[in-house]
Amino acid sequence: MRTRAAVLVGRSSELATLGTYVDGARRSRGGALFLAGEPGIGKSRLLREALDSASAAGMPVLRGRGSSTGPAVPFRPLAEALLSATRGGLDPARWADLGPYRPVLGRLVPEWAEREEPRGDASLVVLAEGILRLTTLAGREHGCVLALEDLHEADPETLAVVEYLAGNLAGQPVLLLATLRSGAGGAAVLADELTRRGDGTVLTLPRLDRPQVHELMATCLETRPECLSDGASERVWQDSGGNPLMVEELLHSMITSGDLVDDEGVWRPAGTSVAAVPPTLLRVIGARADRLGDEVTRLLSVAALLGRRFPLALVRRVLGLPDHALLGEVRSAVEAQLLVPDEHQPGWYAFAHPLALEALRGRLAADELAALARRAAEETEAAQPGLPGDWCQLAAQLREFAGEPVEAARLYVECGRRATADGAPGSATAVLRRARATLAQARGGSAHHEVRRDLLEALLHALAEDGQFEQAVGVVDELTLYAPGDRARRIDRHIRLAWAAQVSGHWAEGHAQVTAARELAPGVAGPEQLAALDAVGAYLAILSPAPDRLDRCDRLARSAVELAAGVPLPSVICQGWYAIGYAARERDLAESDACFRRALEAAVAHRLPMWRNYALTGLGGNAWLAEGDAGPLRHAHAEMLRCGAVGLAQNAAAVLGLSAVLAGDFERAERELAACLAESRRLKLVAVTHYVLTSRVVLAAHQGRREEMRAALDEFTALAGDESAEASQVHGLGAAFCALLEEDRPAAEQELARVTAERSRRQTPFHLDGQHGLGVLLDVLAGRAGEERVRSVAATNSGRMRWNRHFLALAEAVLAGRGGQAEAVTAAMARADAAGRVFGMARCLGLRLVAEPAAVEGWGEPKAWLREAEEHFYQAGVGPVAAACRTLLRRLGEPVRQRRVGTERIPEPLRQRGLTAREYEVLELMPERLGNKALAARLHISPRTAEKHVASLLQKTGLPDRDTLFDRARELLSRGVPGAS
User: Does the pTM exceed 0.70?
Assistant: First the structure.
């Protein structure tokens, strides 16, 4: 990676302003511009861009810098700027025009001091006028830039000269360009004063926002923004506060420590650990604090113990100071941009950069840190009884700093329990792992033993809610060895594992855990445990292949709700109603919605965010199935991520990815499915992974990319197997569509026949696999189905779903057309159009399918349908369907627009060999080893034409015969050149 970004990010408006000022100097409209901001904000980088632009335009650049190192030297930045002019090759003869000002400037440039002449008036005004005359002479032809960096480090004499220059640059070909730190100090005061007088302008650089940090990181990594995960940039943005220097330093630290890795072309965080503060940032932050004095440094160090945000009153109590103290110190820290006041809570402040906390904490000696942390913990616990909200985690952290690991771990465990209850199992797991690491520093004892047992049980609960089955098994194994517990505790552990197995898709293990719990239950399990057992059993039942799975799920879930209501146990009530709603989805979406709403009402009433998210997911899924509306599901997904329910969010993300496929938004689908697959694999969510792999098959199929579909299908089969529940979607929603896009209807019918066979063997919870939509339409087109079949399917719950409604309406149109019912055709096609509007590819494919019988049988508007379908599939690069539409239009006597383009799909080596778009379409079918007659049928050309295209392919590729072309076709399609014989 680059240590520094190669280009400026997020400074387009500032660059435009600089360009205006530089151009003004070239036109003798000089002025003074001050670039202000905190350290690391990019002032020098922006200045360098401006100076490079000025130099490229032929403008002399005189550049100097203030400095706090070494002995104080008056006029140092000005002297350095003038010396840079002499070194830069400017014409020495020009200095003769300075007249009496040349020896005055000898104070800054020794070689201009003439021994035989007096040095002239030593006043600052004369010296400033001399510099003005010099820069004016330097800019006589193209304008000139006098650049002064770090003006906040300059001496008072330099500032006096700057004031004079700024007030006299109007009408001169000179731009005074200076950088300085915002806040207090002579340079900042001067810049503000010049701005008020109209003699200058202060341009304050803001911090980068979240997208700009993402772009900056991608630039440093020399990759595209989409190849950097949002999680990585979110973390760096939070830690850096949007300061570019801190972004670059953090990124470099993460790379060198292995905390950010290239995972199959995408940069992702390798873990959740917080990177150490880079040495450069330690120096920057430490130096800024030191400049403010010991009292401010001590204030900041104590505040750093309390976190990024803190109440000033608590800092006072920790330091033992009266209420009126520290106001001056806080003001200094705010002016130095180390602290910012909290706009929403008077008396609260926050660190401008999160990394400042560690840097300032590290300036305290170990014993002092422990003593202050202990006192801060005591004051916090006294001021906040019960430690509500974030106070609990703060108190835990303070106890950890104070060297009290058992008490710190106890508080962390409480934080973890609260996070799980708040529907954030991912956050709970993270804080409980911190508790575990903290407890490892403590010695044994009864308190240690009790906290460790509580910790493991809380961790098991969080892992189960997040579906982390394998990790949950490890925790149970540890609990069994460390704290076996009584039968009741063992039942609880089995229930937790069963739930984790259900969430993650390890259904066989889930059934085993439920069985083990029921064996222990007689005489021991109370209504709470029996309700929880029935609830998790209901979920496992709905996912089984048993023919009575719906009835069993409904019976167990209602038993769970009844038992939980008597305890009461609100979370299990929500759990039960969600399961009932999930089962009802296969009978009636309205009934399912009602159940999900009952779960939602209970979750809201009892403040159960996790179950609120489940209910929102259920309602969102129903909305998508019913009307193709993904909005509610996206809202649910966002809510889950906001709460930290990352595992549950992947279920919604997987469905959203498939939704994008069916909507024809293939770029979005590919992006979302790739992200979801990476997360589901990382979290080991088996069911979600299977679903995403299914959707990747569908994604390739709906673009007519058979080779990609085969690769995705191989990956799905290797992981899920041929007997998986998703197999029906792979064939009916995936491979069947790919065959139709290749104009191979028999192959599509064969794929749908596989779906029928699979459904006869096992029940599946999937509704869009063709049995209630596409398959019915193809049967009607082939004459295998009539009105009774269409009506019966349309009356089912699956038939009322929008995706299926579209195909069923097309089937109705075909039947009406064959019956000579023109008005019925119009009505059915209107229904099909309304349902299909959200499904771009499927809608146009439907038009192509019904246009053919309409053209032959003389009903409907086949010409208009074919033109629309041809345009769509031509633009989508699906050649076979576009060609079929053109052929049908020609048969109808319609003039067809000649399509000579399409070569953009052809690999460059094949284009260079002269392959036409039609020949490339023939080559795409070669892996199937088709004869001329089959080729002709697929491409709607004559066998003779197909033979000519094959002969041309052999000649242009240099291959000896048709069999070799069959063998090498895939290689040609991917690389464009045949391999060695």
Answer: no
